[in-house]
Amino acid sequence: MNNRQLFLQHVAQTSTAPLGIEMVEAAGVTLTDIDGKTYTDFIAGFSVCNIGHSHPDVVKAVQDQAAKYMHLIVYGEFIESPQVQYAALLAGHLPPNLDCVYFTSSGAEATEGALKLAKRVTGKTKILACNKAYHGSTQGALSVMGDEYWRNAFRPLLPEVYHFNYNDDALVAAIDNTVACVIVEPVQAESGVTPGRKQWLAAIRKKCDAHCVLLIFDEIQSGFGRTGTLFAFEQMGVVPDVLLVGKALGGGMPLGAFISGHKLMRTLTVAPVLGHITTFGGHPVSCAAGKKALEILLEEKYMDTVAAKSELLQSLLVHPAILKMQGIGLWFSLQFSSDMRAQKVAHACVQNGVITDWFLFAPDCIRVAPPLIITETEIRAACRIILASIDQVLLEHPELA
Q1: How many domains does the chain have?
Q2: Does 292 share its domain with 310?
Q3: Are residues 63 and 207 in the same domain?
Q4: For the domain that residue 386 is a member of, what is the CATH number?
Q5: H or E stretch covering 21
């Protein structure tokens, strides 16, 4: 049996129609399949590969650390240089109240830890979240996901979770002394890259302060330069009590984290001991990769190029079939007249050599989020393919008009 047959027979499938492309190499913004066909990765592995795929310095950091040691007891017993040094680097680029890092294996696990932290710190259990939010797929994270279609099949979930529309002042009004935390994305990813209103986020912050409520910002997708600053909250003028990170945090390796202050984090240390624990979170190889990736992002000043590249994308991706282009930094959604048209365009793009996809809560949109290292030449070439793919779909499927 070939790999495709083995894939379909032995690897658990998450949809009825996986892309099924057998990739053999990835470098920079380019993926190569088993037949030698190349693709421009225009979603950066869902915002994981912000500095591109297989950066040689990140690969060397992985190799060097693997040669020293891989798995040890990763949390709370041994002092491991990659973990310690990465935590210090992150803290050095965050506000003073975000100086204590709890590394996890993924963004979803970071969400779980943050929700536990909020309950432990406040002694309360009520959680406010947003419709069309995505915070992971484990049961606690699923409880705060913003759509009943995804939640219903797995109920019962966490009690006392209440959802409000994003950017709606009803959420602000609901914050009172009974609430443990508000979990929100400063830029909501899966609704089609929707930035939060600065006044709305500031009002949430003010009410949380007034009622001893923790404000959790999920920057798992928006972090590490995706929006043009290291974290999106820097542009919003609001600092959270807890920051969730993942995806690009690991530089291509699995890694997540929830970050807060020492005073809050110490509540997970006692009564009970091991208030939150993980086998692989903060794995030394992942931390070595993530630290090197962040150093490259900062040293090469890729964030300084985001605004110009964003403007170029917006100027090029103009087509009568694109009803709306929404986003921030190098992160956009392109809206079409129907879910089916958007999905046909996404599939045509992939067939023609540009990797894109749709959004969980905006299926009438396709995703644009290339690695930050992408060049102007690569942007122009990919945009030509996207526009040609739209024309192809309009020609082949006139019924979708």
Answers
A1: 2
A2: no
A3: yes
A4: 3.90.1150.10
A5: none
Contact 134, 291 (CB under 8 A): no
Cis link prior to 272 (omega < 30° from 0)? yes
* CA pair distance 211, 297, nearest whole angstrom: 38
pLDDT digits 0-9 by tens, 119-136? 999 999 999 999 999 999
Q: Both tokens of residue 382?
A: 């990919």
Q: What is the pLDDT of residues 200-247, one digit of tens each?
A: 999 999 999 999 999 999 999 999 999 999 999 999 999 999 999 999
- Whether the pTM exceeds 0.70: the reply is yes
Q: How far apart are CA 346 and CA 311, in angstroms?
A: 22
Compute how many other C-beta atoms are within 10 angstroms of the C-beta atom of residue 5: 9
385 closest CA partner among 353, 357, 355, 358: 353
Q: Are 233 and 205 contacting, i.e. CB atoms less than 8 angstroms apart? A: no
Same domain, 8 and 102: no
pLDDT tens digit string along 184-203? 999 999 999 999 999 999 99
Specify the CATH number for the domain of residue 64.
3.40.640.10
Q: Which domain holds residue 359?
A: 3-55+301-400
Q: Where are the alpha helices (DSSP H) in 11-123?
A: 44-47, 56-68, 81-91, 107-122
Give the pLDDT confidence score for residue 339 in this predicted structure: 96
Q: Are residues 175 and 235 in the same domain?
A: yes
